[in-house]
Design a protein that fits this description.
single chain, mainly alpha
Length: 179
């Protein structure tokens, strides 16, 4: 049921450019609660938060926000990297694991922000293409109007020339008949 709703939302957003949150009370409340939580975090972004969650997604997510993670989560650092982290943690007065967690989370946040910047660049490119197409369409319509105006002017000139020719023929006929 949830997947069907998300697909409908994707279609709606693709067709109309926005998602109608009021159509789903639970989603609407989720969004409002999420915004309320993020309002307490300095420089938080409503778009970065879900990207962080997605980047940290487990291979198996369970109900109730639970997930499966490997039991052994130890990593080995190169000796110099370990010494650098250990020295930095001691100078900051924090545990080594807190320092490493902070570094990893900062890296993940930058990754999330990069995804957002990519989306913005894609959207900007699409918008530039739309503007170029509108500009091209406007130029083509303007050229068409100018072409029509030129045709109309030439037609008026040709018409005036025909009338003049016609009058001169009538004048010749009248002067020829009078002799």
């Amino acid at each position: 049921m949830g997947a069907a709703f998300l697909e409908e939302q994707k279609r709606e957003q693709a067709n109309m450019g926005w998602t109608f949150l009021a159509g789903d009370r639970v989603l609407h409340c989720d969004v409002l609660r999420g915004l309320e939580i993020l309002a307490t975090v300095p420089n938080a972004s409503f778009e970065v938060a879900p990207w962080l969650l997605k980047l940290c997604q487990a291979s198996r997510e369970l109900r109730g926000g639970k997930y499966e993670a490997p039991k052994c989560r130890q990593i080995e650092l190169e000796p110099r990297a370990f010494l650098g982290c250990d020295n930095k943690a001691r100078s900051a007065g924090i545990a080594l694991k807190d320092l490493v967690n902070g570094i990893v989370l900062q890296w993940l946040e930058r990754e999330a922000e990069a995804r957002i910047e990519e989306r913005i660049a894609r959207e900007a490119q699409v918008e530039r293409v739309k503007v170029c197409l509108r500009w091209k369409d406007w130029r083509e319509r303007k050229a068409g109007r100018q072409k029509e105006a030129l045709h109309r002017k030439f037609w008026e000139i040709e018409e005036a020339y025909r009338k003049r020719e016609h009058r001169s023929k009538i004048g010749e006929e009248e002067s020829g008949n009078g002799i």
